[in-house]
Write a structure and sequence with these properties.
Layout (H helix, E strand, L loop, with lengths): L15 H5 L9 H4 L3 H4 L24 E5 H6 L5 H5 L5 E4 L5 E6 L2 E2 L2 E4 L2 E2 L7 E2 L7 E8 L3 H4 L6 E7 L7 E9 L3 E11 L6 E13 L6 E14 L4 E15 L6 E2 L22 E16 L5 E22 L9 E27 L2 E22 L24 E19 L5 E18 L2 E2 L2 E16 L4 E12 L4 E2 L8 E14 L4 E23 L2 E21 L4 E15 L12 E10 L6 E10 L2 E8 L5 E9 L2 E11 L4 E8 L17 E2 L6 E9 L1
Parallel strand pairs: 5-9, 25-28
Antiparallel strand pairs: 1-8, 2-3, 3-4, 3-7, 5-6, 8-9, 10-11, 10-37, 11-12, 12-13, 13-14, 14-16, 15-36, 16-17, 17-18, 18-19, 19-20, 20-21, 21-22, 21-23, 23-24, 24-26, 26-27, 27-28, 28-29, 29-30, 30-31, 31-34, 32-33, 34-35, 35-37
Length: about 700
């Protein structure tokens, strides 16, 4: 979107007294609402379309939303999606290995991901490698089910990545950073018009980073490039074409993690640098995303937009997994599982929609309808070394010699095709009441094979309803409620073979939204309840390195508080708290105990008044205790016992300082985990008895040049 200046009016000094006697009139243009977050420099945004594609304010959206803006990411030198999502209320980043992460909200896995509102599948809900955020203006997190646009309702959240777009004015920026463990990074971002009248614009973002790690033998390199061209074909027709490339190469990366228990069930203790990975292990992931968009604005205010995107991800890995539990006396009991994997995923998505106003009953309303077609194909190839070779002790895991691997075999080859048609309307029956109603119609077909199991599932014309209402209590406060159906085909492997049945259920939400300080600060208080069947519950076992699950009934209840924006010209704030009051199964069993029942974060930046051009910031994250139950078996497979592993509550503190040297130069220092808190990164797969520790205290210094 084009960055445009705020509307303003000229005041005639001769008539000042008369003007001041008139009542205040607030005027907000659509251009002002659509400004990117990098333009506003704010910790919040004026509008969002993540829920319904009806471009509305956060306050008028009948679901809770968090926005991680460009200014927030820049202030705290946030470079990856994992770090960015740790700033979103209620989102838990589950980095269970160095190169694999999952995300949860409201107690359940997040599997809905979008780029500029267009769904992009992530196989098994797992992100491979560190996804860079250099190319994004902001990240919007819509909590609760969103089956209307994503085709697959999910009770956790939808993550929508909004790309940076070309600007008419020329802009350039270069960041050079140096941090702990030889962390070196260079970013460049250049944007501007390609012709005299600004009707053709382009933007190029590139980044290069290489670093070692606090973990033994781990090092990585990341390269990112994003280019986009926008052209105004006419005053009301716009074309955009772009491409994103990211290559992540890591060496000495963990596959699986540290065994948490000895063979007698007693707890093991490690240094934070301990790793099971030998130096010959590696994981290289390359991703290409190409897209084209064509939009047209009609004279009656309606807009038509078509989008095409192609995403291809290639992954090559040579890995070393260790399993078993070490005898505390002899040091024996651990065994080797070396493997190699080659994976290609290809996603093709096409979307077309129309939205705009219409008149009914003497009032103006809005409507959107459209269709999304998608095809996601996955091919996996695997090779294995001698499995079960004993290790003399854990200390020798990193010295395990490179084995000889068998011939490559195709382990997975499956395709999912979906067609999702959707319609929604926002009715304005009175000045104070807004009602949004809609539904999606999904058909899909999953076919193929994965590690010997048939991948077969299909459905036609599955309807997912959506309804929400917002009632203005005053000029600043609104009461809202929403209901959404949940229906999601699954690719998770069932412990009994095959794949899990589709996830089905209902999502309810009730809350209060407010706009404070002349709309500079947004707040939300939300109560939520989710009922669903076939919720994936990790079994703690794997087949061919792929986790297995049981499908269970689950109910989640809780509340959230989210606050973002500017408290004053000097103080910006992003904060949230989530309380899961209940997360239970059909028999009242505790579901997903690795998920904290309480989470809170506060990120604030303050412009120091007595030192011009200095900003100081702090970011605190806290979560309550979590646990998993680990079943130990002997060499014959007989159960030795089940042992509870608990991680106590913990808090981390990050600090930042930024000094503007002049109009072109800035210097910044960011400190991470300042209190040197020692904690495990995730317990999401610790039921298999493994996890590893997060990074200790570290620092990064950045020098920025801007034009």
């Amino acid at each position: 979107m084009l960055a445009m200046p705020y509307l303003a009016y000229a005041e005639d000094s001769a008539g000042k007294e008369e003007v001041e006697s008139l009542p205040e009139v607030k005027v907000t243009s659509q251009v002002e609402k659509d400004q990117p977050s990098e333009k506003t420099k704010s910790y919040t945004v004026r509008s969002t379309s993540s829920a319904t594609r009806l471009n509305t304010s956060i306050r008028d959206t009948p679901q809770s939303i968090s926005v991680i803006t460009r200014q927030l990411m820049d202030d705290f030198r946030v470079l990856t999606v994992n770090d960015a999502l740790s700033l979103a209320t209620g989102v838990r980043v589950e980095q269970f290995e160095t190169e694999r992460s999952q995300y949860t909200a409201r107690g359940f896995n997040i599997t809905n991901f979008q780029i500029d509102g267009l769904s992009t599948p992530i196989t098994y809900g797992t992100q491979y490698g560190d996804l860079d955020v250099a190319l994004y203006d902001r990240i919007e997190v819509l909590r609760g089910a969103n089956g209307l646009l994503t085709a697959m309702g999910n009770p956790s959240a939808t993550i929508n990545f909004i790309r940076k777009r070309p600007t008419t004015e020329f802009k350039a920026k270069v960041d050079a950073s140096l941090g702990s463990w030889d962390n070196r990074r260079l970013d460049a971002d250049i944007s501007g018009a390609l012709n005299a009248d600004g009707s053709v614009r382009a933007r190029l973002v590139i980044a290069h980073q290489e670093k070692n790690s606090y973990l033994d033998r781990l090092s990585s390199e990341r390269n990112v490039a994003y280019g986009v061209i926008e052209a105004d074909l006419s005053e009301k027709t716009n074309l955009a074409v772009g491409h994103t490339y990211q290559q992540n190469n890591s060496n000495g990366n963990i596959w699986g993690s540290l065994p948490l228990l000895y063979s007698d069930g007693s707890k093991r203790h490690y240094s934070r640098s301990d790793s099971t990975a030998p130096d010959w292990s590696y994981w290289d992931v390359g991703t290409h995303i190409s897209f084209v968009e064509l939009s047209h604005l009609f004279d009656n205010g309606w807009k038509a937009k078509g989008q095409l995107t192609h995403k291809q991800t290639d992954s090559n890995a040579r890995l070393h997994y260790i399993y078993g539990n070490e005898n505390p006396v002899t040091g024996l009991g651990l065994k080797s599982y070396p493997s190699m994997y080659r994976t290609r995923t290809e996603d093709n998505v096409a979307d077309f929609y129309l939205n705009g106003p219409f008149d009914l009953g003497g009032r103006k309303h809005e409507m959107v309808f459209g269709t999304t077609w998608s095809k996601a194909a996955v091919k996996d190839y695997s090779r294995f070394g001698p499995i079960g070779t004993p290790l003399s002790s854990f200390e020798n895991a990193g010295d395990f010699p490179l084995p000889t691997y068998d011939a490559e075999n195709k382990s997975a080859d499956f395709t999912m095709r979906t067609i999702n048609s959707y319609v929604a309307a926002k009715f304005n029956p009175t000045e104070l009441l807004k009602v949004t109603a809609g539904a999606s119609l999904l058909s899909y077909n999953l076919e193929g094979v994965s590690f010997g199991d048939p991948q077969e599932s299909k459905a036609n014309n599955k309807v997912t309803p959506y309804m929400g209402a917002v009632y203005d209590l005053s000029d600043e406060h609104s009461l809202y409620a929403s209901y959404a159906g949940i229906y999601k085909p699954q690719v998770e492997r069932s412990a009994g073979g095959g794949i899990l049945a589709p996830l089905e259920g209902k999502n309810y939400e009730l809350g209060v939204k407010s706009e404070w300080l002349n709309n500079r600060l947004n707040s939300t208080f939300a109560l939520f309840k989710t009922e669903q069947e076939n919720q994936p519950q990790p079994t703690g076992s794997t087949i061919g390195g792929i986790a297995t699950y049981n499908g269970i009934k689950a109910t989640s209840k809780g509340f959230e508080i989210d606050v973002s924006g500017e408290l004053s010209d000097a103080l910006s704030l992003n904060a949230g708290y989530t309380r899961l009051m209940s997360l239970k199964g059909a028999n009242n069993q505790n579901v997903n105990p690795f998920t904290p029942r309480n989470q809170a974060h506060v990120a604030a930046i303050y412009k120091v008044p007595f030192i011009q051009n200095l900003k100081l910031g702090a970011n605190v994250y806290w979560q309550s205790d979590t646990h998993v139950d680990i079943a130990l078996a002997d060499d014959n497979g007989d159960l030795v016992g089940t042992f509870r592993y608990k991680q106590s509550s913990y808090a981390t503190l990050n600090l930042s300082a930024n000094y503007k040297i002049d109009q072109h130069w800035d210097a910044a220092l960011n400190l991470y985990n300042v209190t040197n808190e020692k904690y495990l990164t995730s317990l999401i797969f610790a039921s298999a008895g493994q996890a590893y520790y997060a990074a200790p205290a570290s620092a990064m210094a950045t020098l920025t040049w801007k034009y």
